[in-house]
Amino acid sequence: MIVVDVNILLSGLRSSLGASHVVLRAMVTGDIAFAISPAVALEYEDVLKRPGILGAHSSITSGDIDIVLDGLLKQAKLVSPSFRYRPILNDPKDELYIECALSAGATRIVSHDKHFRHPAMSGFGIVACLAADIATELRRRHQT
Question: Which of 108, 103, 106 is nearest to 127 (CA)?
């Protein structure tokens, strides 16, 4: 079980060539177990619908983002954290991913942000990893 930072989704929507797109596709198709909390869902929507965030020449519309988010919510383990841990990370806004992971029993947070490698994370049994790590696991799984 993983929790995915919005920066992975953003990268996956911006380019179909990278590991982030592999992770996003696996999430939408149900090929990987992941969790979303209400706070994470709102963060996804807020960030992905910011004007210009996908690039000045992106053809992805707000409606397209809704379709992606609906697909993610259909595949996700939906959790509602009943506790808050603040602040652990250098960016307290990212605590919502830790709360989601703890509620879901997830062991990894997939992110490009280095602050998820904070020493306190291991105390919760959560490790940070990159989209490339997950993409490699997915490729290996499909080769066997």
Answer: 108
Give me the residue label for tokens 């806004």. 93
According to DSSP, residue 56 is labeled T
- Is the pLDDT at 57 greater than 90? The verdict is no
Q: Which domain holds residue 91?
A: 2-143
Q: Total structural domains in the chain? A: 1
Q: For the ranges 64-68, 88-92, 128-132, which has the lowest average pLDDT? A: 88-92
CA distance linking residue 130 with residue 44, whole number of Å? 18
Q: What is the average pLDDT across 111-134?
A: 88
CA distance 5 to 93: 11
CATH number at residue 55: 3.40.50.1010
Distance CA 87, CA 14 (A): 31
Asked whether 9 and 40 are in contact (CB, 8 A), the reply is no
- Angstrom CA distances, 131 to 2, 4, 80, 112, stand at 11, 9, 25, 8
- Distance separating alpha carbons of residues 111 and 121, to the nearest angstrom: 13
